[in-house]
Amino acid sequence: KPVRTKGGIDPVEMRRAIAAAMARSKREIPHYYVSSDLDVTALMTWLEGENRKRPIPERLLYAVPLIRVICLALAKTPELNGLYEGDAFRPSEAVHAGLAVSMRGGGLIAPAILNADTLDLDELRKALADLVQRVRSGRLKSSEMTSATVTISNLGEKTADMLMPVIYPPQVAIVGCGQIRDSVCFTGDTWQTRRIMTVTVAADHRVSDGRIAARFLNDAQKRLDHPEKL
Asked: Which residues are CB-neighbours of 26 under 8 A, at least 6 positions away?
C-alpha cells in the first residue's frame, strides 16, 4: 500500500507499491489481450445533444457513459469480474469498478466505485467527480482502495490510440480505453468519418479465454450504438 506522510502519499513509496503489484501481476497471471475498434459516433452525437439540455455543472464528460457501458457489459460477463485467490476464481455479483486515476506529483491508483453497474448516468457523474477530487486531495477511504473487482483505465483525450494494460491482482481483468480519433470507414455503400476508440481487454487465462473478451466487446458496441438507452 502507498505510504502516507504529512504531505500526502509518498511518491517514492507509491512507485514501489506499483512496481510490486505489477511485478506480481506479470509473474503470476497468464495475461491474454483482445482489442477492438469500437465506434463511438452515436455516443458522442447523443452526448452533444444531451449536454445542450443540461446546465453546465451537470454536463457529462464522455467518460461517464463510457464507464456505464463497460460496467453494464461486465455485469453480463462474470468471467471478467471477480477475484482469483487461493487457486480459485470467485466471480462478483456486483461490479465494483476500479478507475485508474493519475495523482498530482506522479503515481497511479485505481480506487473503486462500488456497485457501479447499478448507478445511472447522473449518479456515476457525481461518483466519478467525487472520487477524482478525493484522489487528488488524498482523502480516499480504505475500502475504496481494496474493493475493486475489475479495473477500467481510460487514457483520455490527446493521449494515445491504444494501451495494453496490466491486471491488478487479485482481479482477473482490466479494460483499457484509448483516445477517441476520427477514422474514415466504408459503411453501407459510402465512405464516412466515424469516431473510433480502441478498447483492449487484458484478462486472466486461468479464468477465461479470448472468446469471452470478444463477447464483452461486442456487447459494449451494441450499447454504444444506442446511448439513449443508457
From this structure: 166
